[in-house]
Amino acid sequence: MSAALQAVPELLKSMPNWVSWRMVNGTKPPFICGTNFTEHASSTDPTTWSTFDKASANPISETEGIGFVLGGDALSQQILGFDLDGCRNPETGDLTSWAEEFLDSLPSSYAEYTPSGYGLRIWVRGKLPGAKRMFKMDPKAGFGSKVQIEVYDSARYFTVTGNACDEYFDRQVLSIGDSDLRRVYQMCDDLHVKFPPPSAPTTSGESREAGEGARIQSTGLVSTTKLALLTGGTIVSQTPFVMEDGKGNSIQYPSQSEADLALVTALAIEHGNNPDLIDEEFRKSPLYREKWDRLADSTIEKAVKTAERLRGEWDKKKSESEEQQSLSEFLKEQEPVAAHEYDMTEEEFESEFNEEWPVIRLRPQPGPEWSDEIFYGLSGEIIKRASQYNEAHPAGMLLDFLVSMGSIFGRTCYFNINSTKHYSNEFMVRVGDSSYSRKGGGRDEIDRLLRRVDKNWLDSRTLNGFGSSEAIIDQIRNSSVQSRFDKRSNSYVTTHVPGIDDKRLCVREGEMASLFLLASKTESRADVIMRDGWDGKALRNIVKGKSADGFSNSLVCEEPHFSVSGDTTRSELIAKLPDGSDENGFGNRFLYVYVYRTKLCPVGGPEIDWSNEAAQLYDVIEFAKKQGCVGLTPTAYTTWKRMYAQIENSPLPGLAGKMTSRSSAHVRRLALIYAMLDMSSSVHIKHLRAAQLLWNYCADSAQYIFNGTSKDQIKLLRWLEKQPVPVTRSQIREDFYQRHKKAEHIETIMDDLVGLKKVKLTGDTYSVVQ
């Protein structure tokens, strides 16, 4: 193996996504490793890929080497590749300023110089935020004749040389990490706008920018322009796959396989369930190749199912007297809340419904800003997988999963603060503005996984509907030995009253208001029981009287492991919290997580096989049971001292500050859960940082829930106060957000501030309400 390849991250090396390449007529086609460049590999056929060890056995030179294919199994599909052409002067090694900014925005990535010396290849872990793959720029924006950015997550391979960008990254810490790619993706689009490529001919005023494909006009169910391009156009590029009709229109896909499926779906919509006719029409198109003979049946079957589903939805809506309308217009009418707009272009929206499991992204809402960087380790992988086709907000799913795992661990692992033991039990409340926010929508999928891991916990240790504090303690009561008077024997009889051996109790309430109302009743003492339960203290309900059997009605649980997970709306939470919750410690024992509906999934998604994750979690639970006291590593101990001071010296203002005043304890408990999920007997820095990122989202949620504005909105209000004259939305995007937020998102934020009467809208300008 070449010494240079030592720089390649282990995550990439561990994947079976490797091919060889050799220069042929000025191109670099991929070959199957070990075949002496006699058998071609395919970027869409994993059976032609190899391991890193096998690939790296080949020599690397200017005319041959190895490459990494994007796509493949579930883990490989999380790897994205950015190709920055024309961003580097090969003679001086200088990068353009926009390329340097690009690298600064992706610190958890791996970057190499391309063999030509003009560009960069960057690998990062995340999910591609949009459908656009190519962003062309004016050659004046860089070096050489071709200046552009391409991004792919499948059906493409990148050459790998190991020639890493050492001046921007410390080779010792090179890694692939989760990243929020929306900002970077927006940066690509901003660069395309800032440095537009030379104009190309247009037809009917329509844009013909490379990488965007044709703008499709729809009539009825079939996009006739798309159909015409795919059946009568000319193939001008294979990677990416581009077709043109000679009239200024073009259409683009990552590879020909996607184009094949698009055409077959369009034909299935046109001809119905007629595989022979679909096959016949496909063979007449420029897309036909020998590969079609072995893929025809499966591709047509998938396309027919998609077409039948779309036609069925259409037929339910359409009547004979109705005017024809596009499928996208029809589907948009199904959205019950008109305020929710799509975070997609019209073309992306249309193409998504050709998928078997369409996912329609809704634009971000006001409130705390979510970042996929919050995902960490096993829990992050599980929630990313569970949320792919789920409309629930990932923040609520993640915290609910962590609280569940903390409950499942039981009274085993803990950490000490002085003489106080803190266990892994937590309280959380998921807050949305209405049922439309899908607060509990993600729990069912997670429960499918947890049922395989600990069925007894899910069936008998997660309960709701409590009407008294006695009922809560009764579910985890201790056994006792009691004496009662027996009339038959005219004497006292000692009897063993059985208790509940499993002291785990996770109270789950779909309507958290019922639990808050119970805690509001002074005589119930439920608020005291819940506070003591979070602390892990003994729970006691000492009352007079005896049961019909002569036993005492008093109940005790000496070592509870008590957790709470509930859902509510913002108005219900504020109205129903017990009086004094902000002062007596009841409110600050909860983690608050603000959620909203993030996407539309009309038909859900494919059933997830949780076998691997269930096996991993089973091992995690067995590990946690054996731990006892879990301390900090020496470096984590040093980090925590600084982190603690930072957390405690940065309280939130107002009511939110009081409701988050137990922040340090929450961070340590979350870090403990993360450590157990990593099967680590100590808490490391990475666990503290993962916990802090999640806590920051919870703190921002509390700020928005209790104070009415998010941290971002507060900063924006302070900026607006300093402006000498009212400003437009465009000025806010340019000057305050530095174009790092989409115009639609800014519109949502400003509409929220106007509704709160903190900002006044006059014409098209905004000013702070005095």
Major sheet details: 5 strands, antiparallel
**Unreliable stretches, pLDDT < 50, 5 or more residues?**
168-174, 200-224, 319-340
Write down the overall mean pLDDT.
81
* Number of separate strands: 28
Shape: globular
Distance N to C terminus:
68 Å
Category by helix and strand content = alpha+beta
- What is the strand arrangement across the widest sheet? 5-6-4-8-7
| Rg over CA atoms | 30 Å
Q: Give the proportion of residues in helices.
A: 25-40%
Beta-strand portion reads 15-25%
Description:
The chain has 770 residues and is of the alpha+beta class. Helix 5 (224-232) crosses helix 6 (256-271). The relative contact order is 0.07. Residues 168-174, 200-224 and 319-340 have low confidence and may be disordered.
Brief account:
By secondary structure, the protein is α+β, with helices and mostly antiparallel strands.
List the helices and strands and how they pair.
Blueprint: H1 10-13, E1 18-22, E2 30-31, H2 52-56, E3 64-70, E4 79-85, H3 97-104, E5 109-113, E6 120-125, E7 134-137, E8 147-152, E9 156-160, H4 182-194, H5 224-232, E10 234-237, E11 241-244, E12 250-253, H6 256-271, H7 275-284, H8 292-317, H9 327-333, H10 346-352, E13 360-361, H11 377-387, H12 394-409, E14 414-417, E15 420-423, E16 427-432, H13 443-453, H14 455-460, E17 462-463, H15 469-474, E18 480-486, E19 491-497, E20 504-509, H16 513-520, H17 526-535, E21 539-541, E22 555-557, E23 561-569, H18 570-576, E24 590-594, E25 599-600, H19 611-625, H20 634-648, H21 654-659, H22 663-677, H23 685-707, H24 711-722, E26 727-728, H25 729-736, H26 743-755, E27 759-762, E28 765-768
Parallel strand pairs: 16-23, 16-24, 17-20, 20-23
Antiparallel strand pairs: 1-2, 1-3, 3-9, 4-6, 4-8, 5-6, 7-8, 10-11, 11-12, 13-25, 14-15, 18-19, 21-22, 26-28, 27-28
Helix pairs in contact: 5-6, 6-7, 6-8, 11-12, 13-19, 16-17, 22-23, 25-26
